[in-house]
Amino acid sequence: RYIERPDIITFGSPCQDFSLAGKQAGGDEGAGTRSSLMYETIRIVSKLKPKYVIWENVKNLLSVKHRHNFDAYLEIMENLGYENHYQVLNAKDYGIPQNRERVFTISILKECEQNFTFPLKQELALRLKDMSEDEVDEKYYLSEYKINSISHWKAYQKPFEKVQGKNSIVPTLTARGAGEEHSGMITYSDSLDNTTNLQDKCLNIKEATKKGYKEAYDGDSVNLEQPNSKTRRGRVGNQVAQTLTTSCNQGVVNNYRIRKLTPKECWRLMGFDDEDFEKASQVNSNAQLYKQAGNSIVVQVLEAIFRELLGGGRFE
Q1: What is the pLDDT along the chain (316 residues), one digit of tens a residue?
Q2: I want to staple 299 with a disulfide (CB 3.0 to 4.6 A). Which of 12, 158, 221, 271 is the partner?
Q3: Catalytic residue positions?
């Protein structure tokens, strides 16, 4: 049984077949892909005819390969009597320190005769550090072996503070100096948290750039996927998280170590408060909590759209 007529329908049809991270299977009508479920939403819209329809999806939907699916959606919605507005919005422009670009399509029934403009960008006041938990279990920290796998070799060419540890060693001395006070000498410890880079105070993370790496400072994010990739760029986020996905594949630099983001931190980075998270964590595993965060829409972005669409203050 259908309700008489809702005011708003919001949806984010599965993005896997549009996403760069997926197999690019597309979303053609009748294709049987997950992303083709967008046509099921169109069927629901055609039955209910809400005043407003909000569709969110990955930016790659606008690429040459998938643009025909997007244009088909716009054409169908226009034939159903809607006026379409679309724009790519980034979560970091609406108060959340996450570099998450998504295309939002706002469709308004023409009979409503309503002008719509997308919300203006806001200056980002929060950093990734501000979303961090005060205490994090050691299990979230990467081993030294895993950190080495994504670190560029030049990370070990710079002077380090000498540390005292049972496994500390002195590397080969060079002609530049034979004493501790000379540059060019590196000492290692059995744990990276005891090692301090005196020159740059950062970790050098492999990226496919001219230098071959990018500096990651305390509070920067590090994408942990494909550590051996020779073509990967954008692995380091400057005081912001990169786009959250459905698995825990992102870390943060913390005192010269790297640890994975916790499920609670991922929920915070999607705009949910801790009370929401605590309720969800009582009935979901960590794997499910990560998945739910990655599949969600950033709350503050939706709020900004709703304020422009419906007027009024913050939604409670």
Answers
A1: 556 788 999 987 765 655 656 566 665 666 556 566 777 888 889 999 999 999 998 888 888 777 888 898 999 999 999 999 999 999 999 999 999 999 999 999 999 888 899 999 999 999 999 999 999 999 999 988 888 888 876 544 443 433 333 344 444 444 444 344 433 333 334 444 444 443 457 889 998 888 888 999 999 999 998 877 777 788 999 999 999 988 888 999 998 899 999 999 999 999 999 999 999 999 999 999 999 999 899 999 999 999 999 874 444 4
A2: 271
A3: 15
Nearest of 126, 136, 137 to residue 269 by alpha carbon: 126
How far is 234 from 231, CA to CA, in rounded Å?
10
Distance CA 195, CA 278 (A): 35
- Taking CA atoms, 76 is separated from 57, 164, 236, in Å, by 17, 68, 40
